[in-house]
Fold each of these.
Amino acid sequence: MKRADVVVIGAGSAGSVTARRCSEMGLKTVLLDRKPRFLIGQKVCGDEISRSHFDATGIDYPQYDEISSSISGADVYPPNLENELRVRGWAEFDGWTVHRLNFGQRLLNDAMRSGVEFHSDCHVTRPIMRGEQVVGVEYKDLSNKEELSISSKLVVDASGFAGVFRSKIDNDLIEASIEKEDVALCYREIIRLKSPLAEPEVARVLLGGKYAPSGYAWVFPKGEQEVNVGVGITGGQGKGSPKSYYFKFRDEYPLLFDSEVLDSGGGAVPVRRPIKSLVADGIAFVGDAALQVNPIHGGGIGAGMRAGIILGEVAKRAIARRELTAKGLWHYNMRFQSGFGQRLASLEIFKRLLQDVTDEEMDFGFEKRLLEADDLMAANRGDGLSLSPLDKLKRVKRGIGKIGLLRKLQSAATLMKKMSAAYKNYPSHLSGLDEWNNQILEIVNQAVFR
């Protein structure tokens, strides 16, 4: 049996960064992925990532063929496509749409150069358990059908949100399944436009039920004449497939007329707060497997990278102390959940607000500027919707025709602050987890804005 300090399952952005950081900390690290080596990094997603994630982690910026386009702004449209919010001049918003394959290959190469042992074409079948402790994994080499196993001090699940590995571990700390309403089904195409974009550095986001019930449509530049365009709708709603909504959007949105499809595909992403505990005995979760995504749009590259750096450092400490129980790994929970995790969790409330308001209310809110660009950026920072008494007075005057919508905004602002505060006070010991999680569920259950 092969032995390692750390086994990481999944060589996506979160898995590759975690493996690299573990190796940099002096840990013998093995990275496994089901895909062939040359396909690592290929994934259906929006491809957009903020510069701030690289500044926070110290990972080198994308460059050369890893970059499709630089992004420095966004236009957010209500259902009637009028009175859009123009988000400009926010340094934390600046970033790129990346060439997903080239960027993923670079992260993997960085991990391997740091000393990570990488194996492609490997299907991890189940955990190796010693009592309640995960002590390794069994996997099949898909190239020769050989059954293999690795023993390790720590297993990191970076295999994606579906939780196939997570669901095979019976532990009260682990959320084995995710509600359908917390999953977005997506379909996207890479398209060459008939004419160059007027603003190739500006992303477009379109809200409302016409094209994306309980979700949104997007147009993200990947060059002057190429875009990543798609639709994501929340699962479990019985509203049809995202592909059918996407084709309606493409056929009706003038920018996309007479365009050439270069690539297409669909997938599913989680759109809720991170799982209640990122660790259990002998195992930790990172990236989509930990639901470390922005609940508004499902983007998780940056969050997964941030978590991977933290996890690598916590793994070193836990292994040095020979404390690979949940208690010994708990510092990963505390650092991520009370930090970037609280930003993600508060955005779940904002997502639920956007899902529950009607198209008519949303059109009115954009027209009267009951929701402003500053609100979007404050929410993205985890600051909630900060409505001062003066702000409230101004918005009451503008929104006198729909007082109910103003009440929904105020309720969402209050709940976002509660959620953020709860995550900032994540329990310092696993004995406090149940009480804390009940508090979180109570906040989520209050987030109904119909």
Amino acid sequence: MSLKNLPKLPQKSGILLLDKPADFSSHDIIAIVRRILNTKTIGHSGTLDPMATGLLILLIGREATRRQPDFLKLSKTYQAVLTLGTETNTWDRYGEVIHSAPVPSISSEQLTAAVQKLSGTIAQQIPPFSAKKIKGEKMYDLARKGVELAPRFSEITVSWENVSLHSPNEISFTLTGSCGTYVRSLGYMLARELGTVGHLSSLRRIAIGSYHVNEAFDGNLLKSCQTDTLYNWVQAL
């Protein structure tokens, strides 16, 4: 049954906190929720790459989607792992390896100094494989066509916590970034600051503003979820 033929049900407008599983795009999840809730009117507060897991905030109904700009502005907090020594074309583990480099011995002082350079308000390099548009075309479409693009940057504000070198070539960290932060960009830049290359091998979004993933519906349960059950998870604004 297509969306246009779905029966009209009483609509409950509000927000749905959802814990996205890996290997689904955010748009895949939104399409599934649209079918379950029998509604087309769903927005979001910022998407996640297929590799990433964690918090999505879906805005259900007209009243909630009108507030999408406010939700998009909220800061976001992530837990991530950076693997050093190999760089991929997407700057995460889903990409193809394009560079390899030796990983130097890294002291805690060197790691702290590198992180400090990437803290506060900084110029973030935008990943070539991103949805950022150039003259109407998304950068990942241009990258797939083999178009070489000059590096592009955007200004963001970031803070780091729990930065730890827990193996010779892996760094784990928690990062909070302003709207538009690409965590894989910060991983790419941190590896370069440390004198090597790297890619993000794990990414989980744990918070958006004051909303936490611990309060979210498990996205793995969507396939067997009924309409009333999921509507019970929609919070009024």
Amino acid sequence: MTILQKFRRKSPSPAKSAGPGLIGLDISANQIHMCQIRPLENGLFSIVAKETIEFSGNRDKLLAEPKKLKRLIGPVLRKKNFKGKRVAALMPWEQAKIILLTYKSNVSDVDSEVVKMLSKRIEGSIDDYVVDYVPVRSNPSDEEHMVVATVAKREAVDSMLHALISCGLEVDSLDIAPTALRRIVSALYTGHAADNVLMINTYQDESYLTVISGRRLLFNQAVPFGETMLLENIARELDISAESARALITDHGLAKQPLALAIGAEAESGISATLLEIVKPCFLDLINEINRVLVFTASETHGVPVSRICLLGCIAQWPGAQQVLLSLLDFDAPDGQTEFNQVFQDENEDTRIPWEGLFSEISIAMGLSLRGLVADE
């Protein structure tokens, strides 16, 4: 067994460093997201550089070819204002298992207790894994304490490190997505707004529900809700290809758009309604999963409700998806766009992409790049 902390060298304190922090590196199924952030005064941040790189094939094949990875990342580092080569990289969701553990508060050796409990929850020997954990509930008055533990196959960790180092990067840390999202919440929200935040990160084949409570990771779970499933449902119902289904979503979305209403485009609104009717059962299945999470969150926080729900990832790019989700949940969320612009400034020249869409795409890379720059680390 190896403690993941060994792969994490201490980052500079925000108070002592006004220069850019680490480069956040998120290699997803067919995209590479990169971001670097510089701390400002009074809890504000400046985005020094950001980039999304498309690649063909899959992530495993790319990581097995460090030279190809270097050809993709190298020009971006040189041309997009990134500083240095030190990265905080994402350990892929599916390769890092996150487990919520509770133990008696009178346990003296927490490390040994966590390892013992994890040994019963994994396949094979614990010595074949890299382990890390963070406290979630540790009040002295509680009868039980709680931690969120992360385990990853040592082979997968070593392979990730080898790929990144071989392409010329300096690996400061391997991190997990929920921790990266926690940093985003810590940076964006304070006070009541940060009580409980649910982040729904959507991918091709599944999605992840992550609850951040204050500055702590409270919950993380995978659910069977992904873009591929939605597109296949549309394609099957309309007898078209998946590519054509994606084009319909891009052009019309899932909800009536302001422009369509303004010009009286009833036909376009009708297409949106049809698309929504097709995917609505999948969204309702997601709502059922979310409702279970909301009940769990309330039980763990003495009835404090979720204050914000953020849809991230590929489905967040679908016009109207966030609107539909919140409507089905009957959840009124405050507009986070203004708050985002108040906390993060952008030094990048490309401002054509609306911040709302940009954030949903590179949020994890941003969270990775915030490592060492937020007050709770």
Amino acid sequence: MIRGAALAGPAVAVAVAMAIGCGGKRAPTPVGGGHDAGDAGLAIDAAAPPALAVDAAVAAGTAPDYRVIDVSHAGSAKVTVSWPDASAAMRRSPGRTACGTERPPRARIGTLHGVADAVVMIALTAGKAPPPAAPLRVIARDCAFTPRVAVAPGLGGALELQSGDEAAQTIVATGLGQPWGAAPAERPLARAHLPMLGHTVALTLDAPGAIALGGVGDDPALIVAPPTPYVAVTDEVGVARFDAVPAGSYPVMAWLPPAAGQPALLATGTVTVAADAEAALTLTLTP
């Protein structure tokens, strides 16, 4: 399971401002296609509370306290996540999986120290409309998940879990609440049994928060159902870009999920955005 690092001070304030916390689930969304089974083979945790407070937000694709406003003269933001002091051990694979494939390193770091696969959030309670709900597919193959870190387009879409192997697999989904906060709250969500190649089941992402996918190999996948459209994953050079950001100053958080047996890392800062202009911010991770 993924566990967040213990944080204090400004980090907690940012996490509270983002108001992210996994809620309940609706019935799984059927997925079409060869060998697809919709909710067949998917066991939902009976202890999970129903999704009530977030129902209206799901229809809008955002968390309940988020408002859609005019962003015709908004600016943009470029956030770079850097880890210049990362050791060589953090950059190399910790070994091989049971399938004989190479496990990913603690962090994928570019030549200019940019860190890929970090989750970046701008703490906004009002801004652009979210994109239409769309499915996010995660494939389990060769004792690993692809993608390993991802942000769903918004709330209300399906998290599709698909087998890429001939052998049967069982994926365990765990709600993490706010793993970047001071008091992470883990709870089981579902178990998906994938008996054959191409078999797919789906969960509805009906509440904002983070979900860990385990049961396949040593390294879980991390999926974020975003409370606002201002959540992204850094690219190969450590950059996350945000458009239609209303003018103003906002807290920003970068969270690198745990990997390769190492704990999570977090960096915070503030970005100031002007109308019709691009703001740039670099956040530096430290152990």
